[in-house]
Design a protein that fits this description.
This protein is α+β, with helices and mostly antiparallel strands and about 550 residues long. The chain has 21 helices and 21 strands. Helix 12 packs antiparallel against helix 14 and helix 13 crosses helix 16. The longest helix has 17 residues. Bound molecules: flavin-adenine dinucleotide, D-malate and zinc ion. This is D-2-hydroxyglutarate dehydrogenase. GO terms for molecular function: (R)-2-hydroxyglutarate dehydrogenase activity. Keywords: FAD, Flavoprotein, Oxidoreductase.
Length: about 550
């Protein structure tokens, strides 16, 4: 109890605590606003050299040079054949697209295409020669109708922040980016229902709602670049799912365009509508394989005035679980985030991201947990949280902790958690796994993985513990087939054995299309293939992704 109080007091009076961390960041409703595009750009590479399908490039960030590892599709491409049924783009096709979109909407510029062909992880690189940028639904419809008739394969792309290679072409597919469809169409202050186009960037929606006194029901580290259409298509989870649930609950309606150009108007704004099958759910999480999402209607919660954030230390994983249970019981309705990271994750962030400091520097801890509360009465919420923290300290569940005292501290705590993916990219090669695992088993996998890999790699764990979602990341100096063979299929077999999911929130994309059977029964996969065939008989939409191509060619 004394220790908790000490830390609390210490920070309360520490005027210099990380002041410089937040320059350039904007605090909004308890979250860090990172100009994500800028971070994204710093990961780009001016020059590349290729060695056995991998390339290494060097980029300069804030005066420090670091190496960025790249591994392109050497292994996947060698096992994935370009579907010979697909046509190749001709000059007639280009003329047609220019006729409907104008010069501006038809991108052939090599530099822009290089970005659009490469994913955020720098692991997947396609060779598309064409990106189309429609501005209205009718244009999307005309594009798809034409591509379907010509059997031209397409990749729907949003902010290109996906982590499973779903947003970039595998071969020469046409990229369709709806980023120019970025209008907010309506907002109802009484119901909190927002209707917008699919290309709206998540951060812009958050800012818009902030002015209206509302928030988005989802928040994630990629908010500065990802689009709501991409979020819906991946059924993104993020940091608020524990409080506001998944997009299957908050998305009320959608407009989507099918492969043959048919526009499906499912853009309802009703909380309740039981008239037959709720088809919008097919498009939530289907990763662009069934249609292009063009509009979204989403239920947004009102902004509440009292937000608190604690950064806590636990000595073992069992304590993290106990803390979760207690937080649910004692904080109840005000709990709005419960995130965890292990000491390896914290160290990667502190080493690779500028201007961050350990919030609990007096000793090294094995686990860290961020707990956020959001409520409507400051005094009540603070009292509840402080009582909970003191109890947790007294019972030994937490061994140290700080409660953010101002916007700067709040921002820096969130920056530590949200910055982990970026820090890992800077650290070298990353093997990234996104698993749903029963929380009590979650860390066993991490420990087993460490035992398997020994000193060959740094096994880093973090994630949305409150949702049973582990982000298992294996960081190594470079990608090697030897290391990969020690990780896979072990990681998938282990997850399957414990009835987990091999994709909690990132999707299957290209990376895990042929791994779906670890989480879904053969009958379920066959039904999915039949639905795909019904909606996209020529399989032009995001080919080679989500479902194993072999199953699609059979069905
Ligand atoms: P893209 O990456 O462009 O596309 C993703 C998939 O959706 C692709 O298959 C693409 O074909 C399809 N798609 C995109 N737009 C459309 C559309 N309009 N219609 C049909 N299909 C479309 N994910 C989480 O769930 N939780 C997190 O906390 C989280 N944090 C992240 C943090 C970082 C730093 C990064 C880089 C990524 C993170 N992600 C997270 C992963 C990612 O899924 C999300 O960033 C986001 O939902 C992807 O949106 P996007 O617009 O970038 O889509
Ligand atoms: C996160 O929670 O930080 C994201 O899902 C990204 C990641 O897993 O690296
Ligand atoms: Zn996540």
């Amino acid at each position: 109890m004394e220790k908790w109080r000490l830390t609390y007091r210490l920070l309360k009076h520490s005027s210099n605590f990380d002041r410089r961390l937040t320059s350039g960041h904007r605090y909004l409703f308890g979250r860090t606003f990172i100009p994500f595009k800028e971070n994204f750009r710093t990961l780009e590479c001016p020059s590349r050299s290729y060695v056995n399908g991998a390339s290494v490039s060097f980029a300069r960030v804030n005066g420090n040079s670091y190496a960025v590892q790249h591994r392109y599709l050497a292994s996947v491409a060698s096992t994935t054949q370009r579907n010979p049924d697909f046509s190749k783009i001709t000059s007639d096709d280009i003329s047609y697209f220019k006729k409907i979109l104008g010069e501006r909407g038809v991108v052939q510029d090599e530099e822009k295409l290089a970005d659009a062909n490469t994913d955020w992880m720098r692991k997947h690189k396609g060779s598309s020669k064409l990106m189309l940028q429609p501005r209205i639904t009718e244009e999307v419809s005309q594009i798809l109708k034409y591509c379907n008739s010509r059997c031209l394969a397409v990749v729907p792309q949003g902010g290109n922040t996906g982590l499973v290679g779903g947003s970039v072409p595998v071969f020469d597919e046409v990229i369709i980016n709806v980023g120019s469809m970025n209008n907010i169409l309506s907002f109802d202050k009484v119901s909190g229902i927002l209707v917008c186009e699919a290309g709206c960037i998540l951060e812009n929606l958050i800012s818009f709602l902030d002015n209206q006194g509302f928030i988005m029901p989802l928040d994630l580290g990629a908010k500065g670049s990802c689009q709501i259409g991409g979020n819906v298509s991946t059924n993104a989870g993020g940091l608020r799912l524990i409080r506001y649930g998944s997009l299957h609950g908050s998305v009320l309606g959608l407009e989507a365009v099918l492969a043959n150009g048919t526009v499906l108007d499912m853009l309802g704004t009703l909380r309740k509508d039981n008239t037959g099958y709720d088809l919008k759910h097919l498009f939530i999480g289907s990763e662009g394989s069934l249609g292009i999402v063009t509009k979204v209607s989403i239920l947004t919660p009102p902004m509440l005035s009292s937000v608190n954030l604690a950064f806590l230390a636990c000595e073992d994983y069992a304590s993290c679980q106990k803390l979760l249970l207690e937080a649910k019981r004692k904080l109840g309705e005000i709990l709005s985030a419960f995130e965890f990271l292990d000491v390896n994750a914290l160290n990667v962030v502190l080493k690779h991201l500028d201007g961050l400091r350990d919030p609990l520097p007096s000793s090294v801890h094995n686990f860290y947990v961020l707990i956020e509360t959001t409520g409507s009465m400051e005094s009540h919420d603070k009292e509840k949280l402080e009582a909970f923290l003191l109890q947790s300290m007294n019972s030994g569940i937490i061994t140290d902790g700080v409660l953010a005292q101002d916007i700067n501290q709040t921002s820096s705590f969130w920056r530590i958690r949200e910055g982990i993916p970026e820090a890992l990219m800077k650290a070298g090669a990353v093997y990234k796994y996104d698993l749903s695992v029963p929380p009590e088993k979650m860390y066993e996998l991490v420990e087993e993985m460490r035992a398997r890999l020994g000193s060959a790699a740094n096994v880093v764990a973090y994630g949305h513990l409150g949702d049973g979602n582990l982000h298992l990341n294996i960081s190594a100096p470079q990608y090697t087939d030897g290391l990969l063979s020690k990780i896979e299929p072990f990681v998938y077999e282990w997850t399957s054995k414990h009835r987990g999911s091999i994709s909690a929130e990132h999707g299957l994309g290209l990376m895990k299309a042929d791994k779906i059977h670890y989480s879904k029964s053969p009958e379920t996969v066959l039904l999915m293939a039949a639905i795909k065939k019904l909606l996209d008989p020529n399989r032009i939409l995001n080919p080679y992704k989500v479902l194993p191509p072999s199953i699609l060619s059979q069905s």
